[in-house]
Amino acid sequence: MSLVEEYEEGEYERAPKRLKTAEVEEGEDLEEGEDSDSASTGLLGDEEDVAGPGGEKRAHWSTSKYGSARRDNGDDAHRIAPSPVVHVRGLCESVVEADLVEALEKFGTICYVMMMPFKRQALVEFEGVESADKCVACGASEAVYIAGQQAFFNYSTSKRITRPTNADNPNSGNKVLLLSIQNPLYPITTDVLYTVCNPIGNVLRIVIFKRNGIQAMVEFESVQSAQKSKAALNGADIYAGCCTLKIEYARPTRLNVIRNDNDSWDYTKPYLVRRERGKGRHRQAILGEHPSSYSDNGYGTHCPLLPLPSNNRYKVSSQDVPDVVAYPLPQSSAYMPHSSSSVAMVSGLHPANMNCTRIFNLFCLYGNIEKVKFMKSVPGTALVEMGEEYAVDRAITHLNSIKLFGKRLNVCVSKQHAVIPSQVFELEDGTSSYKDFAMTRNNRFTSAGQASKNIIQPPSCVLHFYNVPPCVTQEELLRLCTDHDVPGFVKFKVFDAKPSSKTISGLLEFDTKTHAVEVLTVLNHYQIRIPNGSNPYTLKLCFSTSSHL
Questions:
Q1: Hey, CA dihedral for 88, 19, 212, 390, is it positive or negative?
Q2: For the whole model, what pTM was predicted?
Q3: Which of 146, 245, 398, 475 suits a disulfide with 103, CB 3.0-4.6 Å?
Q4: Closest CA to 189 of 371, 388, 441, 389
Q5: What separation, in Å, do the N-terminal and C-terminal C-alpha atoms of the chain show?
Q6: pLDDT tens digits for range 73-106
Q7: SS3 track for 323-380
Q8: What would the pLDDT profile of 412-445 be if each residue is shown by its tens digit?
């Protein structure tokens, strides 16, 4: 058993699972308000027509004379009882935990902060309800700015933010942080994390594991160093616009590292190098060292990307922490360290509703698909060979644990390095259990120009559609959903197009995220034929950056 497998299957795996509770509890509260305070640019400019600040679509909150939050439209049925946990919306993209603490500690002692970077939201738990009352009341009567941008406040439906350990007690002795890297467009290695974390506090050990997305545990020299690092880095991007850090305290208090490589490192034992089993010496290399090994880390030169919060936010002197952390600069993929396989293993697939084509329709949003094969020995499980290892990382980050046709998907890195078309059989819908997609024109990352048009986006309840003939109406799209036995959309919007345009595009909003995922899985790349048309139009779908229309 490898080191990474030991961490995945042992006590290290249980830590991230404990983090879901608070976000699930807050889910209904976020449905109508998330990301409503600003509009961001989507694929092919789909967000230009979406209401921004002050638009009619934004949800406004105020505080009643009884101290509970309600909608401005007077809907008292949605009133939320006071809670020591405050839900913060409208945060800027660059905000980190220290920014919230600096802006909100005037209302009272803050026990814990949970960042939700992609939603631009956070949960802040105060020591008492009185402090939360002051925060919500102040936000309703006057503008409260966090990192230079006005934020909006409401009571959370949770009475306490769930922690994986007794993290709010400074004497708990926990000096290990759990880092979840969201939207990992570039590889994450021990060198990268050490460069990010060590300027704030002395790092002793790092372990990276990739079963449920990209996660890592970082052990610091002291609890104080871990606290400073969490405050300074929670919610920050390692690289501009991607590799976002979500940080919690881990359950273990010490990491055990048995070798030093890209996935684990003990900085107190530099001699832990990987050795060939049963070999007394290294095999002779025909071409010697790879050229990338001549540099310190294979990333080339370092560049400053992310300024740290000001020193007074986490109480360190100016000589302890530099003003800017120098992060490694991503180079071409040929010289980047990467995960061990470009094959993803997907389980939890509905046996009647899923086939190779539908897997392609969903996974192609995160990278090119080479081959898909269902496993005969493991029903409901398939192997997906993607164009590169980083595409697998992106698919795991965004698709692991989503619900699809009543089942929850599990997406992880496979031990296989390629998909071999062996034991081909017939699926329940009559299609083949194996399909090669290497030459299909529906892959969306075949060139740099094509790839640059794709915004890597997690599943949402709004789909962006494009490449649709102008003659197709809203009713025809609804009929298409009905004919394929998938949920229909509840809102429809078409973007203005030039009179000479041969296609139209727009947005479709569904009741739930699950409905949107099912429609995309079934109808993405559907061939739309029009009367007297020579060639069909290929319907293209992707997840929008909008949360509502």
A1: positive
A2: 0.48
A3: 146
A4: 389
A5: 49
A6: 444 435 788 999 999 999 887 788 888 888 898 9
A7: CEEEEECCCCHHHCCCCCCCEEEEECCCCCCCCHHHHHHHHCCCCCEEEEEECCCCCC
A8: 998 888 898 888 999 999 999 999 999 999 999 9
